[in-house]
Structure formats: C-alpha cells, structure tokens
Amino acid sequence: MHDKLTKQDIALMEKELEDRRLNIRPKIMEEVKRTRAYGDLSENYEYKAAKDAQRSNDSRMRYLENMIKTARIIDEDQGRPGGVKLYDKVTLWLPEDQEEMVIQVVSTVRTNPREGRISLESPLGKAVLGARVGEVLTVRVNDTYSYDAEVRAVDPAADDGTAPLLSY
How far apart are CA 31 and CA 47, in angstroms? Predict the structure, then answer.
C-alpha cells in the first residue's frame, strides 16, 4: 500500500482502531453469543447479521492496521516554498467551465470530492500542490484529456482533524 499519510491521519486511525478493539468488538461478540442461543443457525437472521457485523469490523481493523504499518509519513508543508500546501483552501478558476471552485488537497484517506477535499494523488491534487496565486495549471487526467485551472487564491489552513477518515 504505502499510502502517503500525515501524522494526524495515523492518529485518527489509531484512535478508530482502539475504539473498534475495546468498544465495538466486545459488543459485537456479545451479540454473536446472544443470537447463537436462539437455536437453528441456518434460519437465524439475527445471528447472521451479528456475524456480518463481526466480519465487517474485523476487516476494518485489518485495513487500519495495514495502513498504519505501511504508511509513509509526509509533512503537511510539502511543496514549493510559498506554494499550496496540504489542507490550504485553494480557489481555482476553470476557464473551460467558466466557474470557480474551492478545494483542499488532502491525504488519500481523507478525500471527499463533494466537500472539496481532493486527494494529493489525484491529477488535480498533484497539479495544485506547490502552485502559487496567478499560476495557470494544466491538469492531466490521462493521455488524451487535460484541462487548465488558474489559482485565484490560497488561504493557508492546517489539518484541524475534522475531515473524517474514509470508511470502506
């Protein structure tokens, strides 16, 4: 995997993992035990639902453990001095669409394009990191399509921890 994550990402993952181990897992295990007592497991919906919840929780815990173990810690201030950094709020002008958009470039585990949080691994994120106000960027989506975006404003920001982790 080797995702590029910030220290804050790791802290959020560790917090979620601890909650899943100490709070969620024991409750699920108790539910599995309780529903098993209902008898015939082949027609026991409650038991199947509890086992599904157990598998889902265990899968999420394995995912978090693997992400933490394999992560490459990155500095939020990466990029050119004076340019866009992770979590800065960036106002872009898209001439092709004749519209402005505001984005934040974030780590891969905190993205939400609907809320303007764009992955640093995405074509737009790669183009914007390090850019300066007034710079016109060419965002290369693939070998056959690209578009231009002008950086209109950069409001310095930091990771305040409010952007939630993606849940798979």
Answer: 8
User: What's the pLDDT tens digit per position in 6-65?
Assistant: 999 999 999 999 999 999 999 999 999 998 888 777 778 899 999 999 999 999 999 999
φ, ψ of residue 160 to 5 degrees: the values are: -90, 5
Handedness of CA 21, 24, 26, 32 (dihedral sign): negative
Antiparallel, parallel or unpaired: β 99-106 and 89-94: antiparallel
Alpha helices (H) in the chain, listed in sequence order: 7-19, 25-36, 45-70, 123-128
Q: What is the pTM of this model?
A: 0.81
147 exposure class (CB count in 10 Å sphere: 0-12, 13-18, 19+) = middle
Enumerate residues 6+ apart whose C-beta is below 8 A from 11.
Answer: none
**What are the structural domains, with CATH classification, of the chain?**
4-73 (1.10.287.180), 89-155 (3.10.50.30)
> In this predicted structure, what is the pLDDT of residue 36?
86
